[in-house]
DNA sequence: TTTTGAGTTGTTCGA
DNA sequence: GTCGAACAACTCAAA
């Protein structure tokens, strides 16, 4: 009778996905229990219908995260195997070659990814391979939060109250004494990630400002968290809307790729809590509710049709969106003639990141002032944001457009001038990204078209040449948007 | 069971 | 200049 190695000594595969860290990683913790050797794996899966893989800036972040995770594993005597192919084929070959007795992953929540995971989970036990999936990206699994009627929440307030009552698990420590099983070179060759899709762009090198701004990976994420707790959290409730200074956490890309876990973050906030209504605790509550919106977006991703394709509210299918290639291009390039919009769009292109308020302003401008389908904007963000998230990105675009869950009221049309004056009063943010306006005094920097010829001359600006005139008139665009949104009713 | 009231992120208008 | 109202429709839970 042939003997096989006992399940305890057969290696376990850890399939990393949106959890690129060692700490608080339940799949990894499970795999290395009892000193079992592990095989750490990441798979670049091909695009499928309905599936959204990282592109552009987010792909750049992914590569950096994979590299730092690989380095951390090498310090411990192992490595991260980064392969490419259909997950089922890659895993099939890997199980065959390594004789692994178990496969573990932390869950993902998009429909296409879940479908793949479900098939794998159903097929492997018959081959004597144990499969386990774990919760690691969210405070609570989406199916555990439901209204009294049993339906998923469609309004944030009640959703958040229900979530707040739930017990949040404590984060796990990083595993100690990891041991590793080898992987045959033949497998690595067969599923090699195609060259030419390398992480760091060269010609053109669009990642210059990103490299200057960001450190990717787990250690950098924890440093970013400590910095936020020490520097910004106390003033967060009052200052978080300011565009002209660093007031927010900038943790979004680390959360997106799981460099830092949501439970680590939650616990860190709790340990900074006093007990009362002090400004610090107000900041903590406010920040927590932002994390709550992330959970709410994931609830939508889990429960609704693919968010980046379908309006959550079907009556928006009748929206008379305009086709406007010229307007869309002006928006993407930061050439709309509205300084707050243009500064934000250029920051996005250069650094892969935008302040939440800036995201709302530019999204409102595209959907309402230009009356361009929110999906165009969502696609651009998907390619340009380092934190491009399959739940947050489309759900937030739908929220601004009004087609989403608990959406902004249709009559809320951001005035780009007012927003600039409120949240960038001295024009510092605008001037950082629009150097051509740097000599314009603060009162005019958000509305250069109202400057007198002498003022423009003094600031060395020629509207229409050195900086565009507004591509739409605010009042007219607002009226057009309100009419379009009103047309969806009755 | 039915009713009622409250609800992330804004703007404009008229008193 | 400041202030309140209007700009809908709907979800959810408390009364």
Notes on the structure:
The structure is a single chain. By secondary structure, this protein is mostly helical. α2 (56-75) links the parallel β2 (38-44) and β3 (80-84). It is built from 22 helices and 5 strands. It folds into 3 domains: 1-137, HUPs (Rossmann fold); 208-303, Serine Threonine Protein Phosphatase 5, Tetratricopeptide repeat, CATH 1.25.40.80; 314-485, Orthogonal Bundle (DNA Cyclobutane Dipyrimidine Photolyase, subunit A, domain 3), CATH 1.10.579. A 5-stranded parallel sheet has the order 3-2-1-4-5. It binds a DNA duplex (15 and 15 nucleotides) through residues 147-149, 153-158, 161, 241, 286, 289-290, 293, 356-357, 360, 364, 399, 406, 408-415, 418-419, 478, 482, 486, 489.
Which descriptors would you attach to this protein?
DNA Cyclobutane Dipyrimidine Photolyase, subunit A, domain 3, single chain, Rossmann fold, DNA-binding, mainly alpha, globular, five-stranded parallel sheet
Principal-axis shape? globular
N-to-C span: 76 Å
Rg from Cα: 24 Å
Biggest sheet, in brief? Answer: 5 strands, parallel
Proportion of helical residues: 40-55%
Task: Name the quaternary structure.
Answer: single chain
Report the total helices.
Answer: 22
**Portion in strands:** 5-15%
* H/E element order: EHEHEHEHEHHHHHHHHHHHHHHHHHH
Could you give a quick summary of the protein structure above?
This protein has 490 residues and is mainly alpha-helical. The chain contains 22 helices and five strands.
